[in-house]
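FAQ: What does a multi-protein file look like?

Like this. Sequence, then tokens, then the next protein.
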Amino acid sequence: MTEAAAKSTKNSKVRVAVVQHEPAWLDLEAGVQKTCKLIEEAAQAGAKLIAFSECWIPGYPAWIWTRPVDFGLGVKYVKNSLVIDSSQMQRMCEAAGTNQINVSLGFSERDGNSVYIAQALIDESGKIVMKRRKMKPTHMERTIFGDASGECLASVVALPDVGRVGALSCWEHMQPLLKYYTFSQNEEIHVAAWPALDSFVEGSPGFWSMSVEGMYISELVCRV
């Protein structure tokens, strides 16, 4: 898609699907099947982009905030994390292509025996056009996830019939320079992926996007 073509979408309306489903916890195969089903449902409803939460596959490891050292869960989490060059990822790409819909996927990426908080943008032809890792895992997330490197900064791409789309994860939205660099790439739609951790208490300083009431999904997708 050319820059001119991307700009031509600025004033058009884009239907976006924000998933509000519980992940298939610690089950890679079930997670892939559920993702493909939701991609199909969103496309049938006329959406041009579907967005999933942080670590949608295989679910966010919330136990790290109460019992950070859990060897059994840690091993299972790694085994059920998603490898980029895998048949599971290929199936989700094929679902995007078959249904002609763009996908913003949040997942735990497995690289060898290390895992990273990752996001990928899959275009409507089924091609991965952007893949990034969260620059620095937040606090206790570092007991599970590794750090990213510089390539994660280039996170904005032009998607057909949608515009220039970018993505960040969770506490990255509290880092002004990282947000600024993302916006400076002429981003038109931003996918902010958050996990759900606690119940929302009215008047509390907590984020609605991280609450149970957010139904385990908390992307904020908006025009900027």
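And here is the next protein:
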Amino acid sequence: MLNIIRPRRLRRTANIRRMVRETKVSVDDLIFPLFVVFGSGKKEEIESMPGNFRWSVDRVHEEIEQVVEANIPAVLLFGIPETKDEIGSGADAEDGVVQQAIRKIKELAPELVVIGDVCLCEYTSHGHCGVLRGDEVDNDATLERLASVAVSLARAGADMVAPSDMMDGRVAAIRAALDEAGFEHVAIMSYAAKYASAFYGPFREAADSAPQFGDRSTYQMDPPNLREALREIELDIAEGADIVMVKPALAYLDVVAAAREAFDVPLAAYNVSGEFAMVKTAAQRGWIDERRIVMEIVCGIKRAGADLILTYHAKDIARWLKE
């Protein structure tokens, strides 16, 4: 008989498969996004994102205790203000909801890495990610606002800031402002390749951040473009980004892979709200095995080259990894 090669030998038992597994997902890879709101006693489930809530600061400890118990190393905070205006004044207010939440979380869990999202869309009355000039987002006027927001978050105790606006030059402006204010130690995780995606729908419900007119295609990336993503990432690294991110994850795994090949810096991918909601809805209807699907998804993101995965599944993943 021919001495054929038999790869199946290394698939024969669960322990053999475990021994030769090439890609491994760890709880250390995970960042859990969460939403905070003004008020007291609030735990509002987000209808399109089952199991995720908007928390008032006085109850955010309930979520943080679960995150710490799960050994998830980091959270990313988004805030919903009481009032909105044209320039998003609530985003850098000393008593802003995210600033309050950061201070509270750092009291509760000093070692937890707290990341503050830097954008204006939740805070502006028009829902766009920057300051308007007419019906257009004014790039350079927005940079001043973003820098102020980043410093405000750092002053509240954030370990890292994450600009998600996609303005040109924002990383350089934020780095300069942080350094000038004495926050040289605060890292920047930039949404370096953030696409104008249809996968953000549930998030916009969660954060009340849908644009009131038009869309964000003049500043977020055009989905067909890969080479442009690499240029955006290169620019952000040159401007001082410590970690770069691709968002969304699943439809852009080729971008994650290309970025991993091209750049030797920590790389994150955001498994976004629409991706989460599709899995949850199908699982609730009994159409899929939620645990297997989620673990396959995050393994695929990791296999493509991501070091870090931002995902609303993080607590479930952490629990499954222990079992």
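Q: Is there any per-entry metadata?
A: Some entries carry free-text notes. For the entry above: The chain has a mean pLDDT of 94.
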